[in-house]
Specification:
There is one protein chain. The chain is built from 16 helices and 13 strands. It is of the alpha/beta class. It has 2 domains: 113 residues, Aspartate Aminotransferase, domain 1 (Alpha-Beta Complex), CATH 3.90.1150; 235 residues, Aspartate Aminotransferase, domain 2 (3-Layer(aba) Sandwich), CATH 3.40.640. Strands 3-9-8-7-6-4-5 form a 7-stranded mixed sheet, sandwiched between helices. Strand 4, helix 7 and strand 5 form a beta-alpha-beta unit. It is globular. About 3% of the residues have low confidence. The chain binds pyridoxal-5'-phosphate. The site of pyridoxal-5'-phosphate (PLP) has 13 residues, from helix 6.
Length: 443
């Protein structure tokens, strides 16, 4: 009862703030002439950060959580390497909060490679590669990433998020259309916004709906990009890629696949969604991914035709006007890739653990949505407060799992999100489902 009232109060106040936000934007018409009477009404609050509706919304959410006795689930300090286990507040927790899918972050050989790179090249390459030059590690990493995807070439950037933003922002413009899955990652949305292209979305994984949109709209645009993910990071499911390829061909569109969560996870060797479906890499026009998940590092990349990569290398702002990847990050990703290729059993074990988690969660009556049971498995609480509370109680029982709350997802999609690692044991999974189902039954 108390939870419902507090939630309602927060939602009402949020709605009012949204209206305020509308007014704030409207008053910024830019039509006023300095010194003239018709200047837009501007209050002193426009120079106070704490008056911004977004700042107020956050304060409101944090206050609401405090009233309900829920500690903020964000920015937890992990005091060591976050693998299958993690140290928080001096206590070892079983960890389902990190994307260390293949247990390679913290692997001694990966650590050693990063340290050796620092010894050889220092901690920074100190400028953009186009002006200050590259290191052998940049070339080796890009060669390895191109081979991973079976593409002609690849280009590595300092951030996975920034990779999508700058590449889409650069390649597309106002005469183009970008159509994406409704659950696509924020980095893609930001890239589309930057490009100025028209943006449309189709319902999650619904290739027939995409076909319909393109049948209606294709003729109005010069180039059309379709964007999907390998594995969706919130739901842990994946698209029927051959269907998407057939549709993009039919409508003369380009297809981009974000493999952030599918590299190291899908396919028997972890080569991603193309390996899973037995497809040729060239059936997709642009692959992109991140080095921060299975590949135990930091940074992003795109892979595709040699002509496209050469063009991006000389022109895409987030590469040309940004520093090259640090040597340690290059070396860590390269070594992680090498270990993944040498030890495909890591991929097999990860998927066995994922399947076990999914089956046992379902058997315990926990709603897991459309998860394929590979690397990401949600437990959908349909209430932010309940998700935050169960997450806190799980931590008290020695298990770290992150809640995903409104407004990151709609309130009826609020959830706990479990990331599986190949280093989780069968016992770890059994204990987790046991604790989760006990807390679940308590409501
Ligand atoms: C689908 C997807 N793409 C891109 C990114 C951005 O990658 P990074 O966190 O390495 O910047 C993420 C991050 O979680 C992601 O889930």
């Amino acid at each position: 009862m108390k939870e419902r009232l507090v939630r309602q109060a927060i939602e009402n106040r949020m709605k009012r703030l949204e209206v305020d936000e509308g007014i704030a934007v409207e008053s910024y018409s830019g039509k006023g002439v300095p010194g003239e009477k018709n200047q837009p009404r501007v209050g002193a609050e426009s120079t106070q950060w704490e008056k911004i509706p977004g700042v107020q919304k956050l304060a409101l959410l944090l206050q609401g959580a405090k009233k309900l006795g829920i500690k903020t689930p964000f920015f937890t300090c992990h005091e060591g390497t976050a693998g299958a286990n993690t140290l928080v507040g001096g206590k070892t927790l079983l960890n389902f909060s990190s994307y260390n899918y293949l247990g390679l972050s913290g692997h001694p050989e990966v650590n050693r490679a990063a340290k050796e790179a620092i010894e050889s090249y220092g901690t920074s390459v100190s400028a953009s590669r186009i002006v200050a030059g590259e290191r052998p590690l940049h070339r080796q990493l890009e060669q390895a990433l191109a081979e991973l995807h079976g593409s002609e070439a690849a280009l590595a950037f300092v951030s996975g998020h920034a990779t999508s933003v700058t590449v889409i922002g650069h390649l597309f413009g106002p005469k183009d259309l970008v159509v994406h899955d409704a659950l696509i990652h924020n980095s893609i949305l930001e890239g589309i916004r930057l490009s100025g292209a028209k943006r449309l979305s189709f319902p999650h994984n619904d290739h027939a709906a995409l076909d319909g949109i393109l049948s209606d709209a294709r003729r109005d645009y010069e180039r059309v990009l379709v964007v999907v993910e390998g594995i969706y990071s919130m739901d842990g499911d994946f698209p029927n890629l051959p269907e998407f390829v057939a549709i993009k061909r039919k409508h003369h569109a380009l297809l981009m696949v974000d493999e952030a969560h599918s590299i190291g996870v899908m396919g028997s060797r972890g080569l991603g969604i193309a390996e899973h479906f037995g497809m040729e890499s060239s059936e997709v026009d642009l692959w992109n991914g991140t080095l921060s998940k299975a590949l135990a590092s930091c940074g992003g990349y795109v892979a595709g035709s040699a002509a496209l990569i050469e063009y991006l290398k000389h022109s895409v702002p987030g590469f040309v006007y940004s520093v090259g990847m640090p040597p340690a990050s290059c070396a860590a990703a390269l070594k992680a890739l090498e270990i993944m290729h040498q030890e495909p059993r890591r991929v097999t074990i990860l998927r066995q653990r994922g399947r076990k988690f999914l089956e046992e969660a379902r058997a315990a009556g926990i709603p897991t949505g459309s998860s394929a049971g590979m690397s990401v498995i949600p437990a959908i609480t349909a209430s932010s407060i309940r998700a935050a509370r169960i997450s806190q109680e799980m931590a008290e029982q020695g298990i770290s799992v992150q809640p995903i709350l409104y407004p990151a997802v709609s309130e009826n999609s609020a959830r706990l999100r479990f990331f599986i690692s190949s280093d989780h044991t069968e016992k770890d999974i059994e204990r987790t489902i046991d604790v989760l189902s006990r807390l679940w039954k308590r409501g």
